[in-house]
Amino acid sequence: MRLFAAIVPPDEVLDDLEEHLAPRIEASDGIRWTDPAQWHITLAFCPDAPERLLDDLTGRLQHSGRRTKPFTLALLGAGTFPNPYAARVLWAGIADAGGALAPLAASVRGGFNKAGATPDGGRFHPHVTLGRFRRPTEATRWIRALSAYESPEWRVGVIHLVESHLGEGRGRRPRYETVAQVPLS
Fold this sequence. Notes:
The chain is of the alpha+beta class. It has 4 helices and 9 strands. It has one domain: Cyclic phosphodiesterase (Cyclic Phosphodiesterase, Chain: A). Strands 2-6-5-4-7 form a 5-stranded antiparallel β-sheet.
């Protein structure tokens, strides 16, 4: 199973971001935009978790959730991976004034490890993937165009455990299926 744990912004935040991006999306080429229904902040990702670990993973997410109080986030600005001069991914940044997101991600990643579903990737860099460039692109104009964006704040109260089904979504994109929702304390 391809699994990830994520924070999913509420509809009003997603709608606000989509409205802000709409004129830019229409005027862009060379970017494959992410479906707004799939915008999320990944806490941990495991590309190949055995299905037998699902109950253990859910239990470990519950443990992380019990140790974390609800907190407030907002989307803020933009950036790219790996860098603005050879960008492959355009993303929206995260404003986390209380500093709760990184410790939650560390706890969730630790839970994935303990369950035997080793998370993929390097250090945690909170973001929402907006789109992928078809080829490495100089993207400073995109960063400037989105630098002033700030979404409404929202209160995070749930961690989602999501299974990703490659190629089964609209336009051969992944289809996401939430397999568990875990409340924060």
